[in-house]
Write a structure and sequence with these properties.
By secondary structure, the protein is an alpha/beta fold. The chain folds into four domains: about 210 residues, 3-Layer(aba) Sandwich (Rossmann fold); about 120 residues, Phosphofructokinase domain (Rossmann fold, 3-Layer(aba) Sandwich), CATH 3.40.50.460; about 200 residues, Rossmann fold (3-Layer(aba) Sandwich); about 130 residues, Phosphofructokinase domain (Rossmann fold). Helix content is about 45%, strand content about 15%. Helix 1 crosses helix 10 and helix 18 crosses helix 19. It starts with 6 loop residues before the first strand and ends with a helix.
Length: about 750
């Protein structure tokens, strides 16, 4: 009361990336919810330097439907004028004339550098504008300071200090879709394909695509081939793959690839080597701008929404003396850091590459980058350099437990190949603990698992049977197959299985081996860890379905769809799906459903439809987790909405059921599975080397990864509802409510 509302403007600049619209939507809605006036700047920095209606005030419904659309609806343009001080002064004048107090800028390092420069020069600009008479003394006194917050929109994922940039995950999806399609025709004709992806100074897309698609070789700027004769090194690796029986060869190359002397390596050069030296029928595919296009995947929508909301909070917390922040993410935690520190570190990568300091360039990337590079080498090279001493080699059992989840096969493929690389013997246990009792056990080879990474479900087979049903027989079988350690891939049941085996060790000697649990479940209900393999794939299936459903609902103008999701006693899928799809209401088992809440939600929907412009109503979504309430089922909920909506809206229900467990695993689930599996095998090696027999789960917590003793895992579990006692994502309920 009595204070002028903060005017906050959002602009997108530089190259477009999927998720920018979700960021704009989040900034606008959160700004309005926090009592600010929201504006957008059309055509990026160019819009700030031109006269006309480029700085536009927007309302709540002006960003309706933004989250699911690719590119940037408010436009972007690289602006030569803004690089000059006169252009930035024009931008300052336009901002003052529109009364803008703060800017949220979504773009790459160049765009964010320009933003920070504008803020640094701001006192000089408004002083000059006052002296020239372009602004009044009152305007000068009111707009002495400009707050700026950065969001990183870049498909290259090249910003230092953040694990992921807005748009990178969608670009990776586009690449993997293309490579998966190419792989089938390459195998049919026994061909080689050289596939060029974007990444002038950053090889993240090439590296992650190579891991996710099971490519044979790759070239990235940060780690060029160490030998000057890279052609012979490549041919040696690929020849061994062919000798093993592979019918296809896939090489992925970043557009900025070069040799150790900084000489460019082009797709055509690689093609000529494969054709002339190995006699392979080789084709080149350049994916180009298809990597930028299309609707954003679920993760980019969620990331952009969380970071957009955080950007508004950062604006409101900023003072004239605080550095401009950029919003990032580390593992699973939204972060703020000084914008120019991040930009300086980012630009240092290119400088390090120019100095041929490739170790330094690699060290400036996030931890996932180096982990994945190590994993790729270890799972594609057929040599002995990584083998451990013979007395440290193990027979490693690999078993799936619980329901299937996307990424289980990628984890198994990685475990098999990493074990073979280190000299261990990977032993597959088919059909869970039932299969172990029945003797469905076999050693796996390098080639046998070659194409498993891109397959959904569980190639080993899985079920919910636990070892406690016949612990004595389980121990006898582990001894019979001489297993030295066990990797258990699965969800809540897998954690319980590890605990049961651990608790029975005093009775059975064969159980005194290292046991590690890799969380894999679409429900993401394993305690302590904030992420499980398979959950990203499931949310993408849900979001794709919701996009199609919402399209149908909007065509009908006045229809509400109640969408039922899986998740058992955990509402993770429903909550994250609601955030990504722009659902208006979400019901989870944690929050439940009561009559008072239903009445409030019905009145909310009525009010929204009454506020819609005649003939321009949109369809709306309600997402309900399958166990949100025993009384208010999806059918009951749909019937209530249909009855109460009367002439305003009707309601339909959709149950997605087991479709959420199927489909091709998302690249994020594949790459995370690879990275975490390698860490699990390394942990088993450490336990075996030290003579220990620990039992633990690998967990992502905040900005770190750690191995959690199974006793601690069980202590954090809500056994009745089969979920964690504390769940990090529940705070998102407030954000979903605000944005809807």
């Amino acid at each position: 009361p009595g204070k002028r509302r903060t005017r906050l403007a959002c602009l997108t600049s530089g190259g477009d990336s999927a998720g920018m619209n979700a960021a704009v939507r989040a900034v606008v809605k959160m700004a309005i919810a926090r009592g600010c006036e929201a504006y957008v700047v059309r055509e990026g920095w160019e819009g700030l330097t031109l006269k006309g209606r480029y700085i536009i005030r927007v309302g709540w419904d002006d960003v309706r439907g933004f989250a699911s659309i690719g590119g940037t609806l408010i436009g972007t343009a690289r602006c030569a004028a803004f690089r000059e001080i006169e252009g930035r002064r024009k931008a300052a004048l336009n901002l003052v004339r529109h009364g803008i107090d703060a800017l949220v800028v979504c773009g790459g390092d160049g765009s964010l550098t320009g933003a920070d420069r504008l803020r640094a020069e701001w006192p000089d600009h408004i002083q000059a504008l006052l002296e020239s008479g372009d602004i009044s003394q009152e305007q000068y006194d009111t707009y002495k300071h400009l707050n700026i917050v950065g969001l990183v929109g870049s498909i290259d994922n090249d910003m230092a200090g953040t694990d992921m940039t807005i748009g990178a995950t969608t670009a990776l999806h586009r690449i993997c879709d293309a490579v998966d399609s190419i792989s089938s025709t390459a195998s049919s004709h026994s061909r080689a394909f050289v596939i060029e992806v974007m990444g002038r100074h950053c090889g993240w897309l090439a590296l992650m695509a190579a891991i996710a698609t099971g490519a044979d070789y790759m070239f990235i700027p940060e780690r060029p081939p160490t030998a000057e004769d890279w052609q012979s090194s490549m041919c040696k690796v690929l020849s061994r793959h062919r000798d093993e029986g592979k019918r296809k060869t896939i090489v992925i190359i970043a557009e900025g690839a070069h040799d150790c002397n900084l000489n460019p390596i082009t797709p055509d050069m690689v093609k000529d080597v494969l054709s002339n030296r190995l006699g392979l029928d080789t084709r080149v595919t350049t994916l180009g701008h298809t990597q930028r296009g299309g609707n954003p995947v679920a993760y980019d929508r969620i990331l952009a929404t969380l970071q957009g909301a955080e950007a508004v909070e950062a604006v409101l917390a900023s003072t004239p003396n605080t550095p401009s922040p950029v919003i990032g993410i580390q593992e699973n935690k939204i972060t703020r850091q000084p914008l120019m520190d991040a930009v300086a570190k980012t630009q240092e990568v290119a400088k390090a590459i120019e100095r041929k300091d490739f170790e330094g360039a690699l060290g400036l990337r996030d931890p996932e980058f180096e982990d994945c590079l190590h994993a790729f080498r270890a799972t594609t090279r057929l040599n002995t350099e990584y083998r451990v001493p013979e007395n440290e080699r193990m027979r490693v059992g690999i078993i799936h437990t619980g329901a299937p989840a996307g990424g289980m096969n990628a984890a198994t493929r990685t475990a098999v190949r990493y074990c073979l690389c280190h000299g261990h013997t990977p032993v597959a246990i088919y059909n869970g603990f039932v299969g172990l009792l029945e003797g469905n056990v076999a050693e796996l080879t390098w080639l046998r698992v070659d194409q498993w990474g891109t397959r959904g479900g569980s190639e080993l087979g899985t079920n919910r049977t636990l070892p406690a049903e016949d612990m004595e027989a389980i121990a006898r079988k582990l001894a019979e197959y001489k297993l030295d350690s066990l990797l258990i891939v699965g969800g809540f049941e897998a954690m319980v299985a590890v605990n049961q085996l651990d608790q029975a060790r005093s009775h059975y000697k064969a159980l005194n081996i290292p046991l590690v649990h890799l969380p894999a479940t679409i429900s993401n209900n394993v305690p302590i860890t904030e992420w499980s393999i398979g959950s990203d794939t499931s949310i993408n299936v849900l979001v794709d379905a919701c996009d199609a459903i919402k399209q149908s609902a909007s065509a009908s103008r006045n229809r509400v769809f109640v969408v039922e999701t899986q998740g058992a006693g955990c509402g993770y899928i429903a909550m994250l799906g609601a955030l990504a799809s722009g659902a208006n209401i979400v019901y989870t088992p944690e929050g439940g459903i009561n009559l008072k809440q239903l009445v409030t939600d019905v009145e909310f929907l009525k009010k929204r439809y009454q506020q819609d412009v005649a003939g321009k109503s949109e369809g709306r979504l309600v997402i309900r987790s399958e166990k949100a309430s025993k009384t208010y089922s999806t059918e009951v909920l749909s019937n209530i909405l249909a009855e109460e909506g009367k002439d305003l809206f009707d309601a339909r229900l959709v149950s997605l059921g087991h479709t959420l467990q199927g489909g091709v695993p998302s690249p994020r689930d594949r790459t995370r599975a690879v990275r975490l599996t390698v860490k699990c095998i390394d942990w088993l090696e450490e336990q075996n080397r030290s003579g220990a027999s620990g039992a633990a789960s690998i967990a992502i917590q905040g900005a770190g990864i750690r191995f959690v003793p199974v006793g601690e895992m069980m202590g954090a579990a809500d056994m009745k509802h089969r979920r964690g006692k504390v769940q990090w994502w529940q705070s998102m309920q407030k954000l979903v409510d605000v944005l809807s």
